[in-house]
Amino acid sequence: MDAEKVEVVVAHSQRATLRVGDVFLKVDGDPSHAEREARAMELAPVPTPAVLWREPPVLALAAVPGTALGVLGEPSPASSEAWAAAGAAVRALHDAPVPPWPGRSVDDVAAELDRECAWLLAHDVVPAEVVRKNRAVAEAALRPWAPVFVHGDLQLTHVFVDGDEVTGIIDWSEAAPGDAMFDLAILTLGHEERLDDVLAGYGPGADRAVIRAWWSLRSLTASRWLIEHGFDPDAPGAELDVLRARMRES
């Protein structure tokens, strides 16, 4: 029998994910991350990867069927109905009981925003006016929210579909109580034209202004981490593109 190839899916100083055939091996220096991810998948009322085994620092997960909704910088091949199904899955998650561990507070988010904006300005990552405009837009996200069960990193590459059905949602290491609008914003980051489809499936209660604010806030606060861990926030459709898009709005 031919040996399975080992594919490095993602790797940085905090964790690495390897694929061997239909098995994903997540290696994390902090064993609490794997424990929380496994628990979150157990609690989530949506399709998730099966946990095959856990031996710290490794969490072994089965591949989910289907294909991702899309990738940043390219038009999504998924149908409007598939995006609506993703919205419905997010609603089911948000309606579930919150997980029994703490999430971030508004004060935590505000402090991070101040810190990361200062870093972007000090390192001249984007023009100062881009930071200032997006900082003003982001303010709308800094309000009290009723915590719900959020995925916490609901990128479109983490949602898998087969036709118009959601077949799996992966990468639950950031799951926690949090702001529902954050998940909706991350799902549509870089694919803002799909927001109507997502909200058609999600149903009532979404606040477009807050989702728009989270697009800016996420992009401002994630850029330094991406740069320092070898990723490119200036890739098409990525965080710096999102920040510049706000400059084209009135």
Please name the defining characteristics of this protein.
250 residues; 42% helix; Aminoglycoside 3'-phosphotransferase, Chain: A, domain 2
Write a structural description.
This protein has one domain (64-247): Aminoglycoside phosphotransferase (APH), C-terminal lobe (Aminoglycoside 3'-phosphotransferase, Chain: A, domain 2), CATH 3.90.1200. 42% of the residues lie in helices and 18% in strands. It contains 8 helices and 10 strands. It has a 5-stranded antiparallel β-sheet, with helices on one face. It has a 3-stranded antiparallel β-sheet with strand order 6-8-9, with helices on one face. A hairpin with a 2-residue loop joins strand 2 (15-20) and strand 3. Helix 3 (106-122) crosses helix 7 (208-228) and helix 7 packs across helix 8. The longest helix has 21 residues, at 208-228. 37% of the residues are buried.
